[in-house]
Amino acid sequence: KMAADTSVEILQKVLENEILQTTKVVEEHLDAEIQKLDQMDEDELECLKQRRLEALKKAQQQKQEWLSKGHGEYREIPSERDFFQEVKESKNVVCHFYRDTTFRCQIMDKHLTVLAKKHIETKFLKLNAEKSPFLCERLRIKVIPTLALVKDGKTQDYIVGFTDLGNTDDFTTETLEWRLGCADVINYSGNLMDPPFQSQKKFGTSFTKLDKKTIREKKYDSDSDDD
């Protein structure tokens, strides 16, 4: 028992030391920042303030512009013609080609609704595949659901079915977010080399870490899976 107590004490001291070291580094950083501000004259401080205000103003204007173009919500567009207009006016677009009778499209809808609110920098749309035969043929869409990922008016990538999302109907919103991040169609803050397959252990599926370049260059090749 004494040996166990000693081990606990040692561990506690190590942890306390780690915390002290971290606190010291943070304090030193703050001191340096305060010193830098103290050494600035009024004109420099005013200049810094103005730059920050300008950056905030610019970010707010950008947000308003996105909202005016229909970003921030997951919307259905009525026709193929609308698709061309929508992708022309926004840099990043995710379009879900769906069918009413396909259950997996409802799963995709649920995740896209969440992501549209979170990633206001990207436009999220849905289009009925049965009402857009020309576009489906042009984009070689054979599997429902398929997400077309559009950058600068050009379709750069596809998410075909749930293959890239862990091959399960129970994939998480974070998994879809990661996959969209790999295509560089959203501003992704996580680690692209570490996919968040949260259901990995539950389903006993073997997932490998994917290289960003491999994902982007992957050929469109999938069997039809409409169930």
UniProtKB/TrEMBL annotation:
**Keyword flag Nucleus:** yes
Q: Which UniProt keywords apply?
A: Cytoplasm, Cytoskeleton, Nucleus, Phosphoprotein
Thioredoxin domain segment(s): 53-181
Q: What is the protein's major site of localization?
A: cytoplasm
Q: Which CDD domains match?
A: Phd_like_TxnDC9 (cd02989)
Q: Does the keyword Cell membrane apply?
A: no
Q: Where in the cell?
A: Cytoplasm, Cytoskeleton, Microtubule organizing center, Centrosome; Midbody; Nucleus
Gene Ontology cellular component list:
centrosome; cytoplasm; midbody; nucleus
Q: Which Gene3D superfamilies match?
A: Glutaredoxin
The record ties this protein, via Pfam families, to: Thioredoxin
Origin superkingdom: Eukaryota
Q: How does it assemble?
A: Forms ternary complexes with the chaperonin TCP1 complex, spanning the cylindrical chaperonin cavity and contacting at least 2 subunits.
The protein's job, in short, is:
Significantly diminishes the chaperonin TCP1 complex ATPase activity, thus negatively impacts protein folding, including that of actin or tubulin.
Q: Spell out the protein name for this chain.
A: Thioredoxin domain-containing protein 9
